[in-house]
Amino acid sequence: MKLALIAKIGHRNFDTVMETVLSWAVDHAVTLYIANNLKSSIRKWSDKKSGTIWSSALEFTSSDNESIEKSDLVITVGGDGTILMAAQLVKGLNKPILGIHSGKLGFLANIQEPYIREALDSLLSGSYQIDQRRLLKAEMPDGTSYEALNDFLFTKKDTVSMIRLRASYDGQFINEYWSDGLIVASPTGSTAYNLSSGGPIVYPGTDVMVLTPINPHTLTTRPLVLPYDRPLDIEIEENPAKILFSYDGFTETRTFPSLQFSIQKSENSIELIRLPHQDYFETLRSKLMWGADLRSGQHSSHS
User: Fold this and answer.
1) pTM for this structure?
2) Domain spans, the chain
3) 3.20.20.70, 2.160.10.10, 2.60.200.30, 3.40.50.800: which CATH number matches 135-268?
4) Which partner from 44, 127, 131, 137 sits 20 to 30 angstroms from 187, CA to CA?
């Protein structure tokens, strides 16, 4: 089996996680493809760990794209941001991603350190399931398009003032928003910034998107859940040079002559690897403390 390894160096338990992954790869004669830009960091870290035997499992490539092209599956070591980065590279390629956690929250990258070997063994035996996650697509009138696994974000740049946006769905006017910003989230992204801004949790695979204003000026303005098979049109009624637009945390730096986006489901999707014992609602309870009774320190019971 050939695996692409996409890593975010610097997380708190990165060394321990990498030691486990590399040792497993050597033990099972598995090739790990790693981009050259990580070579010096990996070798420096490997030398400190006296891990020269690990070189037999590593093959360095010119880029993450080449690593993915040569691989059967993709492993990410980091947090959810590392998975979002990998999603931009694997979209539409049918290369499943296993997210190993070495960051802070790890909602998508949910393989914890004690279970790494078990998870990697499952890859070899094929005892895993695939979660198909559809991306959202934002297209501009000039044909420029962006895709996001989590969300699109519209906010003001370098200022605390509010932003004005006009939203329509399938040709019908929804609302004019005056707020700190606006989030358009997928079900996957519903547990990210959308949730922090008061948006709902949406079960993965549900064919919807969520329109959530950030701190709206009008208290009656609430998040809206819409089917994602028809276009949600967003028009920014501001100077484009003052607007920050981002997709999955990646900021578009160029200035647009105008800001109009048509958002709906993308034709692309990614595949997240889920182990047999993993459960979405258990992840909600353990990662987000969902259902926790803070008075007793206990989670709500399913019995």
Assistant:
1) 0.90
2) 2-128+275-299, 135-268
3) 2.60.200.30
4) 127
